[in-house]
Design goal:
Elements lengths: L12 H10 L6 H11 L4 E4 L6 H12 L9 E4 L3 H14 L8 E4 L5 H10 L3 E4 L1 H10 L9 E4 L2 H6 L3 H10 L5 E6 L4 H10 L4 E4 L2 H4 L4 E7 L2 H14 L5 E4 L3 H13 L4 E4 L5 H12 L5 E4 L1 H4 L9 E4 L6 H8 L9 E7 L3 H12 L4 E2 L5 H22 L3 H12 L4 H14 L1
Parallel strand pairs: 1-6, 1-7, 2-4, 2-5, 3-4, 5-6, 8-13, 8-14, 9-11, 9-12, 10-11, 12-13
Helix pairs in contact: 2-3, 3-4, 6-8, 15-16
The structure holds adenosine monophosphate (AMP).
Length: about 425
Amino acid sequence: MEQLSFDDFEISKEIKKAVQEIGFEEPTPIQALALPEALAGHDIIGQAQTGTGKTAAFGIPVLEKIFIGDKSPQAIIICPTRELSLQVAEELGRLSSFMSKLHILPVYGGQPIGRQIRVLNKGAHIIIGTPGRLIDHIERGTLDLSGIEIVVLDEADEMLDMGFRDDIEKILRETPTKRQTLLFSATIPKTIERLAKKYQKNPKKLRVAQNIITAPEIEQIYYEAREHLKLELFTRLMDIYDLNLVLVFCNTKRRVDYLVRDLKSRGYDADGIHGDMRQSQRDKVMNKFRQGKVEILVATDVAARGIDVPDVEAVFNYDVPNDNEYYVHRIGRTGRAGKTGYAFTFVAGKEIYKLRDIQKYIKSKIKQNKIPTVKEMKTIKSGLILDRVKKVIEKNNLDKDINAVETLIESGYNSIDVAAALLKMLKEE
Ligand code: AMP
C-alpha cells in the first residue's frame, strides 16, 4: 500500500493540527484502511488490537461527526473495562484539543453515579463507557440515546467474552437505526459476525492483525520445558536478560494464582490479574505495574486486554496460548515504540504442535533455545552485554567516553583490561 499522510483524509484542520501536535507522522495501517471508509459514513468491522492505533482510527471519525452546537450525546463508545474507557477518553481528548466546547464523558462502574448524572445533565457530546454503567444510566433515564449518530464497539470480542452481549444489544436498540456503527475487535469469532449482521449495514471488513507480528523489534524465542522446570527457567531468563518489567501469560485463572504465589515465595515482586477479580482490584494491580511498583504481572488473556504499558521488556508465554491470535496479541505488548522486546514461549510436551501452528499462522519461525544451565548463564550474559556494546559502538558518538578511556590508558593500563573490567562490572550490576 502506498504510504498515506493525514493530509490525504477529509478531516478538519483542528484535528490535523492536533495530530501534528501529538506527533503522529503518518497513519498506521488500520488508520489508513479505516479512516476513508469511516469518514465516508460506512460501517466497519476492524480487526485490530491494542497498539495498532485503532483508537484514533475510530476516534477521528467520531470527532468529525459531532455538531458542537447541540449538547446532547451524538456518539457513544462502548468499551469492556473502565481502564480502556479512560484510555479512549484520553486519546480523544488529545485529538480534540483544538476543538473548543467539546464535551467527552467517560462513564464506568465504580465512580459515583451522581457525579456522572450531573455532568450528563449539563450536556456531553461523546459518551465513553462500560456496558453495565451505560445500561444503568439508560434505565434511570439519565442518558438519552435518541440523538446518537455513531456507535463504536471497542474490543467487541472481549465484551462478549465478559458476558455483555445482552447489554450491548440493549444499548444498540436504544440508538436510532440510521446510525453508523464501527466495530473493533482483536478476533472475529462467529459470535461477533452474528452481532455485526444484526446491527450493522454492509460493514467493510478491515484487517491488519499481522502488523504487530512482523515487528522486527520483538525477538521471539521458545524453550521446551516441562511443567516442573518452567519456574526455574523463568527465573534464569529474568536474570540473564536483566529484566525489570515483564508480562507473563497463563492459560487459566488458577495458573495465574499459583504462579503469583510461587514467584512471591521466591522473593519476586509479582502480582496477577484475571477475570475473577473485581474491576477495582484489577485497576489497583495495573496501576502498581504501570508505576513499576510490581515487576512481574501475571495475567490471563482476557484480563490483559486493553493493557497498554509502554515499557514492557518481555512477554512470557508461560503456557502456549490456545488460540493463534492470542499469541499475536500477547507478544504485541512488548517491543513498543521502537524498543526491543523479547517474547519467550515455554513449550511442554505436545504443545509443540500448537507452536508449529502458531508459526504457520504468523508466517515466521520462532527461534528455539535450550534451557541454559547455571554455568551457561554467565556466558550468555556476557554475550548479550557484548551485543549491546556492539550496538552502542555502531549507533553512538563516543568521543567523550573515548577521552575518558584514553586517560586510563595513558596512566599505564591496557585497553583490553579496561574493557574486561567494564564487562565484569556490568555483569555484576
Ligand atoms: P491504540 O492501538 O489506539 O491503543 O494506540 C496505540 C498507541 O499508538 C497510542 O499511544 C497512540 O497514541 C499511538 N498512535 C496512534 N496513531 C498513531 C500514529 N499514526 N502514529 C504514531 N503513533 C500513533
